[in-house]
Design brief:
The chain is mainly alpha-helical. It has 4 helices and no strands.
Length: 119
């Protein structure tokens, strides 16, 4: 995963991800569910209900209170799964904007489009 240490490589891989997602959208219209992290953390219940509806599943309030479940978690994310969804990670990249110029140069148009969509 050497690409993860170079901002231009990260940008390149992200653009490839977008390209392959566009391919799958064109050959499988409506064939898979896409979730947006910022929308999930802004309105967890609505996002969760949409996902369950897409899967043909009934609503369960435990989807919102997942962090209160007492089952064993045997992964490195043990602590994190015991926390409610939080919003502190959204737009966090902006703190480091001055250090991200190679990535911003590659994704500039995408970032501007996303910013305009939110306004």
């Amino acid at each position: 995963m050497t690409y993860a240490f170079d901002l231009e490589d990260i940008g390149h891989h992200y653009l490839q991800y977008l390209r392959i997602m566009e391919h799958w959208r064109s050959v499988l219209p409506g064939g898979f569910y896409e979730s947006d992290y910022e929308l999930l953390v802004a309105d967890q219940e609505t996002a969760s209900r949409r996902l369950l509806s897409y899967c043909g599943l009934e609503w369960d309030p435990a989807c919102i209170d997942f962090h209160e479940h007492k089952r064993d978690v045997k992964t490195a994310s043990n602590w994190q799964v015991r926390q409610p969804i939080y919003t502190s990670s959204t737009r966090r990249w902006e703190r480091y904007e001055g250090h991200l110029q190679p990535l911003l140069d590659m994704l500039g148009d995408l970032i501007r489009e996303k910013h305009q969509q939110r306004q």
